[in-house]
Amino acid sequence: MRRRFVLPALTVAAVGGSLFVAVSPASAHGYISSPPSRQANCASGAVSGCGDIVYEPQSVEQPKGSMQCNGGGSRFTVLNDDSKNWPAATVGASVTFNWVLTARHRTSTWEYFIGAKRVASFDDNGAQPGATKSHTVDLSGYRGRQTVLARWNVADTINAFYSCVDVNIGGGPTTPAPTPTVTVSPTPTPTPTPTPTNDPGATTWAAGTAYPVGTRVTFDGAAYQCRQAHTALTGWEPPHAAALWAAV
Q: How far does the signal peptide extend, from start to end residue (predicted)?
């Protein structure tokens, strides 16, 4: 009689576990959202021809220690392609890098490199970060266009998450020359009517709200559609979380 009760209980537990896995957001981890990392530029459409990284900018996960933008794995090799026209954000000598974390892994360190040199490291001693993480890094020893490699080293696995950010420090000579301007009165550009006004099914995005896949929201006059089921947190606003929201 005891086995008749134990086996159903185990079955229920197994089914419950499988359901939990099924509803958990897939491939959810983290990436640098600003200045825009290479995967952020792919997800936003600023760079085309990126492949699957468009849908998974948060999933560049590989073993620790790589010096490649994709972590040295077989996926997302487009991130290593320096021949692509990666936009470079113009920054000063001190730069704040902002991460969006869609899964908050306990962390050992955060590292930042230019070339083979580590320019900054932040030790979290195994603490669990929040939904966002920011680090201010001193890049005063560099000028012009540089690629910063960031590594988020997870404390309880062998893996790290990778983001490469292209920057132009101090607006050096590598900045493309501006197009000459002509002294004429510009024709005012009409302001387009925001999509949300024609989208009665959309609701205003709000932190603390649980959003299933396909939900349409508005934020700052633009419309977005949910890519991954999640509960919204401050710092995960649609323009800053391309892994969670797609502009429509």
A: 1-28
- Beta-carbon contacts of 168 under 8 Å, excluding residues fewer than 6 positions away, are 88, 89, 90, 91, 144, 145, 146, 174, 175
pTM as predicted:
0.65
What are 47's two structure tokens? 């760079």
Strand partners, 60: none
Q: How confident is the model at residue 212 (pLDDT cuts 50, 70, 90)?
A: confident
| Cβ–Cβ < 8 Å for 212, 25 | no
Element housing 20 (H / E): helix 2-23
The DSSP H or E segment spanning 168 is strand 159-169
Helices (H) and strands (E) in the chain — how many of each?
Answer: 2, 15
Q: What is the pLDDT of residues 167-196, one digit of tens each?
A: 999 975 543 334 444 444 455 555 444 444
Report the distance separating Cα 206 and Cα 219, nearest Å: 9
Amino acid at 81: D
Pair 119, 161: CB distance under 8 Å: no
**pLDDT of amino acid 35:** 96
Residue labelled with tokens 């306990």? 106
What is d(CA 194, CA 169) in angstroms, rounded to the nearest whole number? 34
Predicted pLDDT of residue 2: 47
Instruction: Classify residue 117 by its DSSP letter.
Output: E
Q: In what order do the strands lie in the sheet with 222-226?
A: 203-204, 216-219, 222-226, 245-247
Mean pLDDT of 147-169: 96
